[in-house]
Amino acid sequence: MVKTSVRIAGVEFKNRVLVASGTYGYGDDTKDMVDVSKLGGIITKSLSLKPREGNPPPRIVETASGMLNSIGLANIGVRKFVSDKLPFLRTVDTAVLANIAASSIEEYCAVLDILEGEDGIDGYEINVSCPNVREGGLSFGTSCLLVEEITRRLRARTKRLLAIKLTPNVTHISEFARACEAAGADAISVINTVIGMAVNIKTRKPMLSTVTGGLSGPAIKPIALAKVFEAASAVKIPVFGIGGIMNASDAIEFLLAGATAVQVGTANYIDPAAGIKIADGIRQYCEERGIADVGDLVGALDAKMEYSAIASWL
Amino acid sequence: MVKTSVRIAGVEFKNRVLVASGTYGYGDDTKDMVDVSKLGGIITKSLSLKPREGNPPPRIVETASGMLNSIGLANIGVRKFVSDKLPFLRTVDTAVLANIAASSIEEYCAVLDILEGEDGIDGYEINVSCPNVREGGLSFGTSCLLVEEITRRLRARTKRLLAIKLTPNVTHISEFARACEAAGADAISVINTVIGMAVNIKTRKPMLSTVTGGLSGPAIKPIALAKVFEAASAVKIPVFGIGGIMNASDAIEFLLAGATAVQVGTANYIDPAAGIKIADGIRQYCEERGIADVGDLVGALDAKMEYSAIASWL
Amino acid sequence: MIHTICRVLDLNEVADNIFVLTFHSPEIAPLVQAGQFINIRVADGTDPLLRRPFSVYRIEGNAVQIVFNVVGKGSVALRGKRPGDVLDVLGPLGVPFSLNSPDFETAVLVGGGLGVAPLPLATQTLRASDKRIVTFLGARTASQLVAQHLDGVQVATDDGSKGFRGTVVDLMATMLPSLKAHHPKIFACGPTPMLHALAAVALKEEIPCEVSLEGPMACGFGICQGCPVELIGGEKKYGLMCKDGPTFDVRRIKI
Amino acid sequence: MIHTICRVLDLNEVADNIFVLTFHSPEIAPLVQAGQFINIRVADGTDPLLRRPFSVYRIEGNAVQIVFNVVGKGSVALRGKRPGDVLDVLGPLGVPFSLNSPDFETAVLVGGGLGVAPLPLATQTLRASDKRIVTFLGARTASQLVAQHLDGVQVATDDGSKGFRGTVVDLMATMLPSLKAHHPKIFACGPTPMLHALAAVALKEEIPCEVSLEGPMACGFGICQGCPVELIGGEKKYGLMCKDGPTFDVRRIKI
Ligand SMILES: Cc1cc2nc3c(=O)[nH]c(=O)nc-3n(C[C@H](O)[C@H](O)[C@H](O)COP(=O)(O)OP(=O)(O)OC[C@H]3O[C@@H](n4cnc5c(N)ncnc54)[C@H](O)[C@@H]3O)c2cc1C
Ligand SMILES: Cc1cc2nc3c(=O)[nH]c(=O)nc-3n(C[C@H](O)[C@H](O)[C@H](O)COP(=O)(O)OP(=O)(O)OC[C@H]3O[C@@H](n4cnc5c(N)ncnc54)[C@H](O)[C@@H]3O)c2cc1C
Ligand SMILES: Cc1cc2nc3c(=O)[nH]c(=O)nc-3n(C[C@H](O)[C@H](O)[C@H](O)COP(=O)(O)O)c2cc1C
Ligand SMILES: Cc1cc2nc3c(=O)[nH]c(=O)nc-3n(C[C@H](O)[C@H](O)[C@H](O)COP(=O)(O)O)c2cc1C
Ligand code: FES
Ligand code: FES
Q1: Three-class SS of residue A202?
Q2: Less Cβ around it within 10 Å: N or C end of chain D?
């Protein structure tokens, strides 16, 4: 019997595979087909204070081994989530993290405060890849100071698990990881999507209404692994590894690179049961090798060198 | 008859498709198979002052629609290049840009000075994705100040075409583009490889001897397009678009996004004549649409919005 | 929605570069209603990465059929399927045509190009009712027409190589006066420009009309928010093509 | 080096999960020498992205053969080829075995697992000379042996299901004394650990030995610098597996 569960900041995850924010709705769309209670955890679509309609079409386009999206955080808003979606999630026997998005620090706080009043939520994941109205729309996620401030402000308001979800679109993600740790985050999630673009050469128009969007899927797996390795080498708090995980082998690469657990995103669109299958595959891998605890894989990369910001000659 | 040629800083390129540095050796490996004079231009493997042996194996691994490399800039050194390789390149009727790599600003200057004494070189492309010995090995390419300084120092030493090749592993590539323009660069090349990593789950070892390496190929095309769009929107000097270009359609996407010309890298490994076929495909695309000059495609993206650093809600 | 691994029974070219794929699925076959679609993983590996949605063309017992033309990597992969190959299918998905609603007596089926795809299944359903059926098909040229398993077909081709020369919407418009007497309702599928023109006619003539839309989809079952359709009236700005559609009443959406 | 689009003539399973692919190439066939390889684009699209190198197994007229076992996405794609399919091939590539060098009279061919690949072509060449041939093959088990088109074959299997129980290197070592009298030279191909052990024996016994290496390659013809092989002596630290190899004199490299 392999131990698959893990505790992070007091929250028990039955296995180390969660579904990533925005790639599993609010957990209820697949209930008649998938036993979501077999997942290590469910992370909700990003919730904002008011409902958001999202961006005009086209919002998605497939690229080589990946996809670009520009959903614009379409979501039902935190209040409707509490009234319409949370009741179902309370009935599901797995960890639930509410992902929060906002365009001001006050809004982050307001959304969290509303959720603090509700049971059935084990913790929060903060999406900082959002435009900061005050800074003329520059993403919070690219400012170390703002990420630290958001973390500190939210930390002061909750004892629940607090994870900060970092953007890969920065020079040194380790600086952001350290800032989160210093400000009291319980964990960091690495990575959100990579900024990308595609063009329709017949119409000369961008493939997305917003021109650029977020790249996800297997194409970004090598980038995500490097970011997880960099971040995990920089902090002691757990790292959720995210990016292009399609199968157990991919997930194990992230664990070895230093992720305490992983999140599955785009793969859910291709197979809504992907997360469950991946959790099972990890268990099998350990069984075959006589590994008693999946945790033994975490950071067990057999490498001569630590991660260094030293970009080798590329 | 479609006009395919373009002049950049006095250098005539017969078409807008060059082979990227490090993906075509010194231009002579394929001479018995490919008529390299049909290329818009040849960019040499990065040249350092002394020969470099490069990194230990394994140096490459395939990833989803891409590949990671950690060659370590193995090259014969600038002097051997001048004595053994330049004579052949002089006989090839196409533009030749020497790519320079170094671990100090002085070394960049020294390599350039040696090449300045030689004819048969139309210009230089500067690879700033190199560790700066003085800064403990931190990459020059992630410091706007150092990139500007390198550009200014080299600009003062040559009247030939001077292009700076930027790394995508920064938060805002537009800042680097502006710094290059301000310091007198004639062009910028966007992008070099994206930092990535892969793990062998059987051996638990990294797939590359240096753990992380550079990601290239179709997987990074959306990222490269976004970086080219960002950089081209920020400066007036020409941008060489690079990243995952496998066919004419890909190349046209880059032209529409603002690239004045493109460079083909990884595709050369799969088809050493890829660059020539792509140049031909672009010409055909224009012919079919009655476009008189390939240049009419440059920046002709039909988009409502300019590039903005405003990361939309991802 | 069911996720099953099926067996390919048959693949054959029914028109120029247009193929019908038949697979065996006792789970999906009984559930499908005309206008719904299935989401197929056309190949293993990561490129193409996403499933490809296809309208259900016909159902025969436990055999499910789709019709597709080869345009890009997904359909190229599908064309490579052989009898006995496995096929990873999610479905049925989406909201079907309201074929048994009481608000019409005559079903006017309109298909432009491969928009014909859902019409044969609609015809199968309607035949079992007491509704009348008239069908209008449009194609670029005769060799691209797929006109089997339909009733009362009238054809339009852009090049006039068969039937009416012009668009299928123009053809239908010429017949509307004679149809109006018989409480018609239009059920249409085709390229967006055609549906746009069709909707204009339907709204002007005040004939009820449902269209089946096409557009990029990542999941096909409502969890990615990738397929917005702009709604008219109501408090929500966007509906989801995959979940609230692909069929919509033209009065409810902006095409 | 030639880049051609060839036609697949035949594909068949010659051992457990091991296939021989035959294609028609009047351009490449006459050029290939034993120990060289070809670089095949196993599929269109971008995944798998890079070509896959394969030793040339045999040449018959204008037909070129490779032998491969199915381990990952590239070989899975190859297994899907059918007669008549096109095949995008670059080759021949690399430095062949020095089969007609005067420094030996008896060619000792050693293949571990699919390391047998280049040996039949080497045998074809040697038969035309006055050299003697002895061949040692190793495999995990009998069902994975590919022993056709070879001379004087002796077999070793890890599980003892056929021939000598143990490694092919151990088997060869037992025979060396009797071979030494006839000016032997070893030509070997197989997994790196086997070649490592083999080289040790050859160096100790002072028998000339060439090995064919395997490792990751991006281009296969010298422009990516992706395939370093550590050299012993000389001023260069690394050679290129694809250009200076894949065959090397064991005295020149660190295995
Ligand atoms: C609800 C629904 C039902 C559908 N039903 C059917 C059906 O019954 N039959 C059917 O055939 N299809 C149907 N489709 C469409 C189908 O899902 C696929 O989109 C279609 O098969 C094309 O996919 P592909 O992978 O072959 O082409 P893709 O590779 O996805 O490309 C699609 C098209 O875009 C072009 N393209 C790709 N990239 C670019 C670029 N950078 N610039 C310019 N052009 C580009 C390609 O050339 C191709 O023409 C349906 C779609 C939906 C949403
Ligand atoms: C000069 C030369 C000659 C060759 N000759 C032959 C020949 O004659 N016959 C032959 O069969 N092969 C030969 N090869 C090897 C061949 O080129 C391919 O490498 C082989 O076919 C496997 O490719 P693939 O795409 O099928 O597997 P890949 O997908 O490339 O995977 C290769 C192996 O690595 C494993 N793997 C992939 N990713 C991971 C990961 N993250 N963690 C752990 N394991 C992983 C796969 O499971 C597989 O076992 C030769 C190679 C060279 C360099
Ligand atoms: C369509 C789509 C919508 C997403 N929405 C959100 C979101 O609302 N909040 C968030 O934090 N991340 C969101 N993400 C990012 C994913 O959670 C994940 O970080 C990213 O897709 C990388 O993982 P993957 O490659 O497995 O998809 C979204 C991703 C996709 C593809
Ligand atoms: C194996 C390999 C070696 C490379 N060597 C160099 C180099 O020496 N100097 C340089 O500036 N870029 C080098 N590059 C980067 C390419 O020039 C190019 O910027 C990058 O690969 C992206 O383009 P692509 O996706 O078309 O390959 C190398 C790329 C690869 C794959
Ligand atoms: S395609 Fe994912 S919600 Fe419609
Ligand atoms: S594989 Fe490219 S140099 Fe050897």
Answers
A1: coil
A2: C
Q: Identify residue A192 by its one-letter amino acid code.
A: N
Residue B309 has pLDDT above 70, yes or no: no
Q: Nearest CA to C67 among C32, C8, C22?
A: C22
Residue B311 has a pLDDT of 52
Range A67-72 average pLDDT: 95
The tokens for A87 are: 């009741």
- Indicate if the pLDDT at residue A311 is higher than 60: no
Residues A164-197 pLDDT 10s? 999 999 999 999 999 999 999 999 999 999 999 9
User: Could you tell me which of A161, A150, A165, A75 has the C-alpha nearest to residue A121?
Assistant: A161
Eight-state DSSP code of residue A174: H
Radius of gyration for chain D, computed over Cα atoms and rounded to the nearest angstrom:
18
Residues on chain B touching D231 (C-beta within 8 angstroms): none
Q: Mean per-residue pLDDT for C133-141? A: 95
Pocket residues for ligand 2 (CB within 6 Å)? A 249; B 200-202; D 37, 48, 52-55, 66-69, 71-75, 114, 117, 214-215, 217, 246
SS3 A118: coil
- Look up residue A149 and give its two tokens: 């401030």
Q: Does A65 touch chain D (CB under 8 A)?
A: yes
| Count of CB atoms situated within 10 Å of the CB of A93 | 10
Q: Which of B312, B282, B310 is nearest to B4 (CA)?
A: B282
Of D19, D157, D176, residue with least CA distance to D108: D176
In whole angstroms, give the CA distance from residue B200 to residue B196: 14
Burial of B39 (0-12, 13-18, 19+ CB in 10 A): buried
A31, A246, A278, C71, C246 from A281: Cα distances, Å: 22, 11, 5, 36, 35
| pLDDT for res B304 | 73
pLDDT tens sequence across B69-87? 999 999 999 999 999 999 9
Ligand 3 centre from B222 Cα, in Å? 16
- What average pLDDT does the segment B134-154 reach? 90
Angle in degrees, 0-180, between the axes of helices A248-257 and A274-288, rounded to the nearest 10: 70
Question: Which ligand number lies closest to the CA of residue D69?
Answer: 2
- The ipTM of this complex is 0.96
Strand, helix or coil at D171?
A: helix
Residue B82: how many other CB atoms lie within 10 Å: 19
Question: Does an H or E element contain A295, and which?
Answer: none
Distance from CA of residue C101 to its chain's centroid?
19
Q: Cβ–Cβ contacts within 10 Å for residue D72, how many?
A: 10
Nearest 5°: phi and psi at C230?
-70, 125
Distance, CA of A228 to CA of A177 (rounded, Å) = 10
Average of per-residue pLDDT across C46-72: 96
Distance CA A172, CA A122 (A): 30
Q: What is the pLDDT of residue B130?
A: 87
Q: What is the dihedral of CA B30, B36, B41, B47, to 10 degrees?
A: 30
- Which amino acid residue places its CA nearest to atom 18 of ligand 2? D52
Q: Give the DSSP H or E segment for B208.
A: none
- Number of alpha carbons in the 13 Å side-chain half-sphere of residue A232: 28
Cis before B191? omega within 30: yes
- Ligand number nearest to the C-alpha of D217: 6
Q: Which residues of B touch A308 (CB under 8 A)?
A: 137
Spatial neighbors of B215 by CB under 8 A, at least 6 apart, are: A222, A223, B63, B66, B67, B68, B193, B194, B195, B196
Task: Indicate if the pLDDT at residue B305 is higher than 70.
Answer: no
- The answer on pLDDT for A136 being more than 80 is no
Indicate the residue type of A143: S
Return the bridge partners of D230, or none: D238
Contact, D191 vs D255, CB < 8 A? no
Of D188, D192, D191, nearest in space to D209 by CA: D188
CB contact under 8 A, A70 and B131: no
A187-190 and A161-165 beta bridge pairing: parallel
